[in-house]
Amino acid sequence: MPNFRRPISLLLLLLLSALLICCALADDNSSSSKECINDEDMGSESNCTATAGMDNNIDNDKVKADSLLRTGIRALTEEKDSQKANSIFDKIALDYPNYERMHDVQKFNGIALSNLGHGSKALWCFKNAMLLANEYPGKQMLEKEANGNGYQLFVGGTGQIVQSTALQYWNKVTSKGGAVGSNGFPDKSLMYNAISLAYGVGRHENAKVLNDLLLQIDPNHGGARLMAATMTLENADDGTNSKNKKSGLEMMYDALQSYEQYPWDAAMAWGKVGGVECTLKGHGSDGCVDSWLKAFEFATKLTPIDAEIAIKGVTNASNAMFKQQRSLKEVQKLGEKAVQFGVLNEPLQLPAQLIKGVSNSPYRDDARNWKTVQHLEKHYPKIREEILKSYESGKLHKDSKLDDEGLHTAGEWRELNVFAHGLVDQKALTLLPYTAKVVMALVDATSMVLGGTKVSMMEPGTVVRVHTGETNARLRIHLGINIPDGAFIRVNNETRTWTEGKCTVIDDSYVHEVWHHGNQKRIVLIVDVWHLDMELRRREDSIKQPNALEMYRHYKKDMRMTLLNQGVPEDMIPDVFISERDD
């Protein structure tokens, strides 16, 4: 510790600033409990083990993890031994990374850590808990346990604990003598934990005040330096100030030299660096790849791992590696490591948004019985006639767009949207009215705001590099329109071709690539639909953009009116709408 003599003016400034922050926090948390834990937060022991006997084929690992979870909760609530509880929860996270109640493990571990004074580490445990409850199989149990409201209750309750924990740290740091340790010096650990929690609950300006003071006290404080760099990058996130981004990036690299002090913050920091490196230098740059690899590495070294950063790290690093055209084996090796940590379902399923707890297969050979597939294949003859007529007239080529994502490395690949993110393409209505009407009848396609429907055209010699779709919340249907010899698609590690008049259904969240070495045009109609396992609640959870969520809800409320409001002529609105799900 540096030689610091506690200047009175600095301590007064610290106390006054922290008091102001405390008041601001208290305004939003007046109804929060002063205790981290109460009976309602924790649930009874019977609630924690409600699913233990639901399946007669529960494997031995689940039985052991269930038993440890009960023991940990007892240590936390009855024995009041947070250290023991933390050790137990850490053991579950290390030994059983795929445990279906990991959301509970993370939540209770967060409470134990906050009791032990590790507020910063507790914060990301709480964040992990909410992430896991949303995207992992445990969510299905949560829904069953609370009549469909279990997820909202869990996340809402965890959020309240985070707010309450933040308030407790501020109360402590602003209490008389609370900012001063037993040795007479400022309690830098308490200050930093309070800063992290304030920042985590959205009090960025207040966190900055105290962080600046902490840096005055200890300019080499690793956590405070990371936080200062993070704030600089946050302030430059509008994309207009590259100078600030570069400045924040330099600060972050400098601060990460002392990451050993705060390894859990380093994982988050490397994620920030990855985002900026990709923006400034390109998503295929070495800096982009290396930063996301480090984010994944640091996130998976933690106990328990930082699930959110680990997922972002492996998916972003992999997709950046694809842009560098690195070998698939290299990416698969990284994916296999992520599977071991319970981060991925399969090594080569790498979407930016991974929904856990839904079925996964590169090709959906069970799609023959889907009403959506049967509907498309039934109308294939007229769809094909309309698309080929438009292509041969040159109109389809004129109104379509070249691939603008840099996915094709040779040849020519053009697409015409029929629907894009729930919005009707007016050109397609004029050019392909029959095809558009057929697709409009499909609720799961029209309301698919995380994808779309489009005519995909490839000229001979076209090669589309390895890439992945954005999310596994959707499945992608390819209806073969014109399929010459020499055109192929590889999904995961399996190569196939298309058949005219038949649907090939893929999960494009797996790595996939296309090549066309034939001598005629290849045309398919691509129709994105909601994954069959995605019920209403999950669909809405997966939609992160407010405008897209609003559009989806309009479709769910009234398909006909939503289409009319977009300018679709009344005679084009289908009389009957088809859906794979009843909800």
Write structural notes for this entry:
The longest helix is centred in the first third of the chain and has 25 residues, at 150-174. This protein is elongated. Residues 1-58 have low confidence and may be disordered. It has 583 residues and is an alpha+beta fold. It contains 26 helices and twelve strands. Helix 4 packs antiparallel against helix 5 (82-95) and helix 12 (222-235) packs parallel to helix 14 (263-281). Strands 1, 3, 4, 5, 7, 10 and 12 form a seven-stranded antiparallel β-sheet that branches. The chain has a five-stranded antiparallel β-sheet with strand order 2-6-11-8-9.
List the keywords:
alpha+beta, 583 residues, seven-stranded antiparallel sheet, disordered N terminus
